[in-house]
Design goal:
The longest helix has 8 residues. The protein has one helix and 13 strands. Strand 8 and strand 9 form a beta hairpin. By secondary structure, it is mainly β. It has one domain: YhcH/YjgK/YiaL (Jelly Rolls, Sandwich), CATH 2.60.120.370. It is 4% helix and 46% strand.
């Protein structure tokens, strides 16, 4: 997983041949004018979606409790489970708002929902301890297949609690670029 400022994209161009085109898209000043939806760049090698949603709670940071697991049948919108992909690298970038992303190395996680090759996604139980990163406009996050992630979150921070971070739902507009391995 990589989290960095959009001004530093040149540092990552050598990691994958598709990164140059992906970063060109993210730095295009007209990107914010695009409608929400899916955009094909290079067939199924590179595509991106623009989406809007309201962030969901990560967990109670005071108690240190992980969110309750949500069954696939009950899953609506954003899952409480970490997700990972095998065929694509994700580059996530916010156009508006701010959110937390949960991250954990894939190795050692317990499978919650087996890999679906048509959707290129598997779900994993959220471990008790995960790394949280704050994403806001101007920052991008890269998730490789070895990186399980939990997008679209805010942290529950009761008044006077120890968390000095996002404390409630936020509307976000996000670009997720998918780059085929």
């Amino acid at each position: 997983m990589i989290l960095d400022a959009i001004d530093n994209t040149q540092l990552y161009l050598g990691l994958h041949p598709g990164f140059a085109r992906a970063f060109e898209i993210l730095t295009d000043k007209t990107l914010t004018k695009n409608e929400d939806g899916k955009y094909t760049v290079d067939g199924e090698k590179i595509y991106y979606t623009i989406q809007r949603y309201t962030t969901k709670p990560m967990f109670n940071c005071r108690a240190g409790l992980a969110p309750p697991m949500v069954s696939p049948q009950a899953r609506l919108g954003v899952s409480s489970n970490l997700e990972a992909h095998r065929k694509y690298i994700d580059i996530q970038f916010l156009l508006e708002g701010q959110e937390f992303l949960g991250y954990a190395p894939l190795k050692g996680l317990t499978t919650a929902e087996v890999y679906n090759p048509q959707k290129d996604i598997a779900f994993f139980d959220t471990p008790k301890e995960i790394t949280k990163v704050k994403l806001e406009p101007g920052l991008f996050c890269i998730f490789f297949p070895s990186d399980a992630h939990l997008p679209g979150r805010y942290e529950v921070s009761p008044a006077g609690g120890p968390c000095r971070q996002l404390a409630g739902p936020t509307e976000v507009r996000k670009v997720v670029i998918k780059i085929r391995l």
